[in-house]
Task: inverse folding
């Protein structure tokens, strides 16, 4: 897109329609149940066994299950192998950074690099939602959890176990269902498109990396409570390929977080026992998976309490402090992501969906 029409730009920036529920085809309930089961088995085991310090690692490995929801089994197997391996690598990178006591700036640079690489990878293999977001979530979170070298190794092993279990659950029905025919050249075509200049994929990846880098540096400069949430929010709104979707995603993430913070704050204030928190996390993930394909704002009603409850298992601050930090950090990160999306939107990042 060489010339940007002002009318088209204003239309792309309009927030109208963010509240609509998208029509969905496919077994949404089944995929949500599958994701909830695969994502929480290892998490439940480590928490109930008294190793809550490994809850984040188990959760990240389990999040392999939220990818490739509707893909045929052979394609899903390849996608989840790559995604699961990528998540394990990100947890390893974050854990090493924490164990080596990296400073704030090197950690931000690491997370920004992972954000760009994750966006490029998921665009190339065409993995679909949530794109490279979980990679950013994993490396950003584990880089701030204080661990020793031994504990870092344990986190990586637990993440790998979570990813393996999620992979197995995602393919539980393969034995009973004939696989659909699929194109075996999709990844090859994606690679050619990504590195054939001019490329759409490379500018998009660079935009995500730059947005996350700015968000992280600004959050640290301002002394925010959880700077990694700012980076995650910036990455989340930049996972699209067009500006119109990013505008909607920004509004939905912020407003959904506002409501979700209220729910999460009430749950934290109730001082629930560990088993009850775990049950709430399981239910929240199920509800998030059931609604994310319909409207992102509704999904954030459940993702926000889930994140706050998971953090409480790691004893990360007070209920009020965590809830307020979540709101402020998310709003700032989403705003930075939106601004990054507006920089040269025609360069691999369209104004509206390409039809």
Result:
């Amino acid at each position: 897109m060489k010339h940007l029409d002002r009318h088209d730009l204003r239309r792309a920036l309009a927030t109208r329609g963010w509240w609509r529920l998208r029509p969905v085809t496919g077994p949404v309930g089944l995929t949500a149940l599958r994701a909830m089961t695969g994502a929480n088995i290892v998490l439940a085991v480590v928490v109930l066994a008294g190793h809550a310090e490994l809850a984040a690692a188990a959760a990240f490995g389990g999040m392999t299950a939220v990818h490739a929801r509707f893909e045929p089994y052979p394609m899903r197997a390849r996608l989840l192998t790559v995604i699961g391996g990528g998540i394990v690598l990100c947890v390893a990178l974050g854990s090493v950074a924490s164990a080596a006591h990296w400073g704030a700036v090197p950690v931000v640079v690491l997370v920004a690099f992972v954000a760009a690489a994750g966006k490029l990878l998921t665009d190339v293999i065409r993995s679909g939602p949530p794109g490279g977001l979980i990679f950013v979530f994993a490396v950003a979170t584990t880089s701030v959890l204080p661990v020793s070298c031994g504990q870092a190794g344990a986190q990586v092993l637990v993440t790998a176990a979570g990813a393996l279990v999620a992979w197995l659950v995602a393919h539980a029905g393969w034995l009973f269902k004939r696989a659909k025919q699929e194109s075996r050249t999709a990844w090859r075509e994606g690679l050619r498109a990504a590195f054939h200049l001019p490329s759409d994929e490379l500018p998009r990846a660079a935009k995500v990396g730059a947005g996350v880098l700015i968000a992280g540096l600004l959050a640290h400069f301002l002394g925010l409570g959880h700077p990694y949430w700012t980076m995650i929010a910036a990455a989340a709104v930049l996972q699209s390929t067009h500006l119109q979707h990013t505008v909607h995603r920004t509004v939905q993430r912020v407003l959904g977080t506002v409501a979700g913070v209220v729910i999460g704050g009430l749950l934290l204030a109730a001082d629930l026992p560990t088993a009850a928190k775990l049950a709430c996390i399981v239910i929240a993930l199920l509800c998030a998976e059931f609604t994310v394909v319909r409207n992102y704002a509704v999904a954030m009603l459940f993702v926000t309490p889930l994140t706050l409850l998971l953090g409480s298992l790691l004893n990360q601050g007070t209920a009020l402090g965590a809830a307020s930090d979540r709101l402020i950090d998310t709003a700032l990160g989403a705003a930075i992501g939106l601004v990054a999306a507006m920089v040269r939107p025609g360069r691999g990042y369209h104004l509206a969906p390409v039809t």
The mean pLDDT is 86. Residues 211 and 337 are 5 Å apart (CA to CA). The chain is about 70% helix and 0% strand.
